[in-house]
Amino acid sequence: MDKHELLRQISDLASRNLLTEEEVLSAVRRKAAKGALGQEHVKLTEVLYYLGGFIIILGIVILLGQNWELLNSFTRILVTLGSGVAAYIVGILFQQKDYSQKLTIPFFFLSAVILPIGLFVTFNEAGIQTDDAGINTIISGILLATFLASYFLLKKNVFLLFSIIFGTWLFFAFTSFLFGGNPALGWRFYAYRILATGLTFILLGHSFRTMKRESALTGLLFGFGIFGFLGAALALGGWTPEQSMIWELVFPGIVFAVIFLSIPFKSKSFLIIGALYLMAYIIKITSEYFSQSFGWPLSLVILGFLLIGIGFLSFHLNRKYLST
Amino acid sequence: MDYKKHLTLIIGIAIPVLMVIFVAASIYIPAYFAPTPQFSFLYISDNTYDYRWDYLVRSGTITRIDRNADVKYVQTGDPIFYIYDAAKKESTQISFAEAQKLKLDESPISPDEYEIVRGNGNGGGFPFDFNDNDYNSFYFRGHNTAFRAKLKTNGNYWNFRFLGWILPS
To answer: How much is the pTM?
Structure first.
């Protein structure tokens, strides 16, 4: 029986007073409640998978920490890089059967955490100093290539997530390798890189919104993107007497744009993080410029009113446009 | 691939790539057009607090001033003086007597508008702070660019004290 036939029969029964509106609604609600209960069960199982994965990582770290000096180079590499590769292969094997599909993600997650440790250990055992930008560029490049290829082959979000993480790592390592130490670039170089990364996250999040599978990452990318972007923009303003007037003047425009973008983007991250940064900006500007002229107590009063205003604006926007 | 549909994705991925190109251009283009540093300079490669004498440039000549330190705790003699030759890009050791014959400009900025500065950290921060800081390297900085100067400091920035630019006598 198709949906239209069913609705026609319900309508027919209702017209003959054999079926009431309450009976139809209670039947629909019973089904919805059952579905929610089932979803909770699935989520709890997934949480247990991830918890198990976390405990495995913890176990490996403690095992290595306690016995590091006793292990030879081969064993060190086997325990770290070997475990990462093994977790990846187990993930692939679990993918083959329907009943073990849910187990794949925690194992891929596990491999994504252990593989970088394994690569660091391998390079270290080869006598290469692992804490410089060049080696970090190579390690993050290997991981990015592996996880990006895995994403295109296996179509799992966990690979996309770690591709973004390893890509970010590669970006910072490679730019440090190329330009780090140059006195023509100061601390602002780091802030500009965070600004660029934040903007990239926001744009990736926006483009994923319309994709069926990748849309699950949108909230995370928006959250970290806005946090990094606004944080870098605020930091670029500097502090008197070495402040950047351009960034201090432009920042309120950026933060208001972010707050109002929360409406078309239907994103609470934009609203909440934007409102928090607006508060941080007002506190910064007040203490930087007005605490001496107005006096600190009066500045605090004005600050309090402004923060209440921002809080009310955020609450109003959330209730009117974002609450479902 | 539908480029219009994935425009934000393309821009998002392009931003870090464009930033690398932009920063590279902002470093290498000014370096290409900037004048080569012309002025050599005199420096001490040692910690002068370990010595009996302090050294100052007065009226364009280096002079020795007694620090009145207890002779039991200071080294005798002079620290090592070097001339960094801007043209040859190398340091040559000289004695204090030879250094006294030089005509010096003690201002931190040279007549051709360069200054000697230390390298930065690698420009990282948590969690991307790689342990390859450049604090022990020295550069000519000016004209929106920087050129490395290989100095004899035994790899430690505290073994460096700039004394003055060497003017033509």
So the answer is: 0.78
Tokens of residue A190, six digits: 């780091």
Burial of B168 (0-12, 13-18, 19+ CB in 10 A): exposed
* B132, B11 Cβ separation under 8 angstroms: no
Smallest Cβ distance to A203: which of B11, B117, B145? B11
Sketch the domain layout of chain A as residue ranges.
190-324
Contact A176 B125 (CB under 8 A): no
**CB–CB contact B123 A207 (8 Å):** no
**Separation CA A148–CA A142 (nearest Å):** 10
Strands B138-142 and B115-118 turn out to be antiparallel
Place of tokens 């919805």: A32
* Interchain pair B12, A204: CB under 8 A: yes
* Distance between B160 CA and the closest CA of chain A, angstroms: 17
Residue pLDDT, tens place only, B71-130: 777 877 888 899 999 999 999 999 999 999 999 999 999 999 999 998 876 556 656 667
pLDDT in tens, B136-165: 788 999 998 888 898 888 777 778 889 999
Which residue in the block uniquely carries the two structure tokens 């607090």?
B49
Question: pLDDT (tens digit, 9 = 90+) per residue, A91-103?
Answer: 999 888 777 777 8
